[in-house]
Amino acid sequence: MILTIIIFVAILSLLVFVHELGHFLFAKRAGMGVHEFGFGFPPRVFGIQKQDGKWRLVWGKGGQAVADSVDQGQTVYSVNAIPLGGFVKIMGEDNNEAKDPRSFTNKSFIARFLTLFAGVAMNVLAAWVILSVGFMIGLPVAINGLDEVPSGARFSQQQILIGGVREGSAAEAANIKESDIILSVDGQQFTEIETLQDYIRSKAGQTMSFEVKRINEIVKTEVVTETQNDPTKGVVGVGLAYYGKMQFQPHVALWQGAKTTVNQLKAIFSGIAKIFTSEDGVKGVGGPVKIAQLTGQVADLGLLPLLQFTAFLSLNLAILNSLPFPALDGGRMLFLIIEKLRGKPNNQSVEQYANAIGFMLLLLLMVVITVRDVSQLESIKNLFS
């Protein structure tokens, strides 16, 4: 449990830091002043800053710079006490310091918009890099047939995966689940789908012993084969797929990483759409507790599945921040667009109130989802059973 929390915090911190790094790099590129770029959250432990052409240590209390040790015109690169992600303080992003030409408020619409968008872009870029490196090493994938292996790719460690379980089937009755990996059937190991299917057909009406791997546990179960149209042929009611590592040459891995990134973005957008169109609504949404639980399960599978999951989380963070909701980057970009269409600055009080209300609503939603996720944990259920 402790290791799961450590891994979850480390991954989340890395992704948040990458997001803030995007804002920082583009702000600098656009000529904006940046007061501080920090790893973790205040209070500050220490920082470095260039003063008179030399790098010097600076200190702070409660996240506020000590006036006599900090040059307000130079960026402080800080390490902070709470190791959760990072932050960037851009000059004028709170609509102050309007007199300074380096202020966020004095830059062009496109410079401000891209500075806000850069955090989202950085998370998408991070996912692409992670997936590309993963494909260079070899990422676990599922394919319907060996003819789906791309030309030039290497598919290794081939196993057979349960791609689906028919409702009411013998497999469902035997507690076989989708995504289970078949280790053996009646003590025999199979690596070819056709060979396994032929074996199952030959066992019409008989009991078969299945041994499957489910995340980090081995499950053994007995399956009584069914007979449907042909009483001489057995079926168990599962769809089968191949599972193994797919590896590409570096230049192909970059392209494959890009394609996978796009496909995952589509899948996430589709999932968001279902929140508003399905009967379940937000019931399918997971909060920090659920994500931490999934992180622990994926970590048990090994480093490569954890890399895939990290890329997926990075894309989720990108899309979440791009939503046009107050307090998120997408909301701030929306206010910029409104300002551009109006041809004059927005009412800052209205904008600040909207962001404050948006933040409170997001916080409330996170609390509700977290309480629900905690209540569904088996360890919590056992306390009250």
Description:
Helices cover 47% and strands 24% of the residues. The chain has helices at residues 2-29, 109-137, 170-173, 193-201, 250-277, 288-301, 303-322, 329-342, 348-375, 378-383; strands at 34-51, 54-58, 60-61, 64-65, 76-90, 139-143, 154-165, 181-185, 207-214, 217-224, 226-227, 234-235, 238-247. Strands 6-13-7-8-9-10 form a 6-stranded antiparallel β-sheet. Strands 2-1-5 form a 3-stranded antiparallel β-sheet. A hairpin with a 2-residue loop joins strand 9 and strand 10 (217-224). The radius of gyration is 26 Å and the shape is elongated.
What is this entry, summarized?
The chain has 385 residues and is an alpha+beta fold. The protein has ten helices and 13 strands. Helices cover 47% and strands 24% of the residues.
Annotate the secondary structure layout.
Blueprint (H helix, E strand, L loop, with lengths): L1 H28 L4 E18 L2 E5 L1 E2 L2 E2 L10 E15 L18 H29 L1 E5 L10 E12 L4 H4 L7 E5 L7 H9 L5 E8 L2 E8 L1 E2 L6 E2 L2 E10 L2 H28 L10 H14 L1 H20 L6 H14 L5 H28 L2 H6 L2
Antiparallel strand pairs: 1-2, 1-5, 3-4, 6-13, 7-8, 7-13, 8-9, 9-10, 11-12
